[in-house]
Amino acid sequence: MSWQWSVAVLAGASCSGFTVPSLTDRGLRQLGQSESSTHVLRIVGAVVGVLVGAATTLAALRVGNLLLAVPLVAWGVSVVAASCCDAVTQRIPTALVRQAIVVTGVLLTCALSLSGDWESVLVSVVAAAAAGGVALLCWRFADAGYGDARLAVLGGLGLGHTSASSLVMALTVIVLITAAQVVTTFAVGGNRRTRFPMGPALAAGFVVAATA
């Protein structure tokens, strides 16, 4: 790794690590759940933010488009912050996710169009629509949260540069984390009607797909 790559990765990790806790606090305020913003949550958010920021920056560098690091880091920050809110409240802040979709969409279009990569722009749109559609079906028939559909749209936007194998890995991660949540729920006395947050599993899957 060259020193330019090292500087870029450090910058992405730092920005993400500082931004995730504040964006999570903002999302919790939008939900009227400011009391859920604990010191532990902020530390976890910052640590995950650093890792996601570094990984998304590396993903942009690997495809040879440094400009792509900006929208990918912004995307990663938003996905992690929304999933943190869901983890502690089982609700996803609508305003935060909607704003993130707009910002990510604009930044991705600019970064990819400047390099002439219109195919990735199209793939991002298709991936967002497909992910959102699947989540809507889960909401309609499997009692998933409607907020998960919004988060899925945001998550899909970051997949324009990915490969088919990365998407398979993402699906595997989502299934494994969801299965672990189900097992844990039953282990602590829950039942089939017990609800658990899907945001963390979705976020993990999308980040894996975008950075693998």
Automatic annotation (TrEMBL):
* Membrane keyword on record: yes
Q: Provide the species name.
A: Modestobacter italicus (strain DSM 44449 / CECT 9708 / BC 501)
Transmembrane spans: 41-61, 68-89, 95-114, 121-142, 162-188
Keywords tagged on the record:
Membrane, Transmembrane, Transmembrane helix
Q: State what protein this is by name.
A: Prepilin leader peptidase
Keyword Zinc-finger belongs to the record? no
